[in-house]
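Why does residue order matter? Because the sequence determines the fold. Keep that principle in mind as you read this record.
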Amino acid sequence: MEDWKRFLNEEDGVGVVEMILILVVLIGLVLIFKSQLTSLVGTIFDKIASQSGSI
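Structure:
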């Protein structure tokens, strides 16, 4: 009975589950907004490349 109570009170695995859920949400957001993200990153790199010549 003590082992069962100790098992229910153990919270070491909670951090792992939370991290997995956060990763799943982030991956889902990247998949949903993939085209917007690629165009945004492309625009940023184009702006960096064009302005690096003036330095």
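The CA atoms of residues 22 and 43 lie 28 Å apart.
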